[in-house]
Amino acid sequence: AATDSITSEQIAVGKRAHELDREHVFHSWQAQGPFDPMTILKAEGSWVWDGEGNKLLDLSSQLVNTNIGHQHPKVVAAIQEQAGKLCTIAPQHVNDARSEAARLIAELTPGDLNHVFFTNGGADAVEHAIRMARLHTGKHKVLAAYRSYHGGTQLAINATGDPRRFSNDRGDSGVVHFMPPYPYRSYFAATTEAEETERALRHLEDLITLEGAANIGALILESIPGTAGIYVPPAGYMEGVRTLTRKYGIIFIADEVMAGFGRSGKWFAINHWDITPDLITFAKGVNSGYVPLGGVAISDAIFETFRERPYPGGLTYSGHPLACAAAVATINAMKDESMVENAARLGEQIIGPVLAELKAKHPSVGDVRGTGCFWAVELVTNRETREPMAPYGGSSPAMAAVTAALKKAGMLPFVNFNRIHVVPPLNISDADLRTGLAMLDEALDVADSFVTD
Ligand code: PLP
């Protein structure tokens, strides 16, 4: 059970770590000068303790990766056991942890995705999936959605449809972006979900025609776009994408780095539809990030391309034993403890209904959407005009105040532009989840004070 006691020694260690961090650590995505990172002294289950010893409910699951919560004892033990046996081995050798992780993943992925190439994380999984698709088809262009995130390496950030791409853009990436469905702010002037699906698919097919199907090797799409706003695709859209990619000989890469491994209430978000993509990229939830791991699940047909022809790619740590042992233990713990079923139940019985109540109560809530333990609350200053509470790509005094209120209430939140994401561990207790949603309710009072007529 979680203990609340943080000692003065732990706090002193945290303060020293913070000083050293500011002197020597270069952080992701930040202007280094003004950045004041939060120290985490300890983490257990759904809770973390900050540098002052305050206990915070981790409704962010860090970067939406600790699907089994922090310090799951079975996974910690598996990593310790593997470390005692064999910490590392080069990727060309056979290793039992890696073989078993690949078997478990192949068993969980849909259809004929029977082979797994392991990477260190999500971005390099995306890079390799695109490389495989290009080599398999002999075609270079890649279609990717706006309002998406695919990773921070060169090609992955070029495939990304969020402002982090702007300063990394390269004209020769071969990526062309399309508009995905977003019923709440329909780009297609749709008034129903059916219209949104039909028009978004027509736009996609037009784009394929205009870009030249003969040049397009891959289409990469998050099965449920995550960081960009948790947009569960409207009925028929994903089937339509599968049909179009087949029709034009385009490899369909489902990016499941965030949506996969139970987050959406199914093992993979693509399982919400009766389709099989050609490649699935995964990372994060595969082992809850306890040791860095990602990968690509590969169809039989793409595997055949590389049966006789060498695959031109690799990593020193592909299938690292510690990471794979953590994946095996994570997947088994998720099965034994029915975490995926629990995520679906939490979404249906608690998060969905409570967010609907919060939407009815708080005029600042424009839209709530999601599934499983994967939800977004979109804040607006005016429900009629749907004016976002922060501009695309930015923050605002209103969102800063809401974020501060969430932290003050005792939550470690996931906030992006004008959205708060409710993305707890899949095994959070019902009581903790309700506590977190009550904190959200409290913070939304602050958001309401920024609503204008
Ligand atoms: N793809 C998706 C859908 C993601 O959400 C992320 C990370 O948030 C990535 C790729 C990149 O993964 P990583 O940060 O492990 O490189």
From TrEMBL:
Family annotation (Pfam families): Aminotran_3 (PF00202)
Gene3D superfamilies according to UniProt: Aspartate Aminotransferase, domain 1, Type I PLP-dependent aspartate aminotransferase-like (Major domain)
Keyword set includes Transferase: yes
Keyword Transferase: yes
Keyword terms of this UniProt record: Aminotransferase, Pyridoxal phosphate, Transferase
Molecular-function GO term, any one: transaminase activity
NCBIfam families according to UniProt: PRK06062.1
Family the entry assigns: Belongs to the class-III pyridoxal-phosphate-dependent aminotransferase family.
PANTHER family to which the protein is assigned, alphabetical: AMINOTRANSFERASE, AMINOTRANSFERASE CLASS-III
Name of the molecule in the record: Aspartate aminotransferase family protein
Organism per entry: Paeniglutamicibacter terrestris
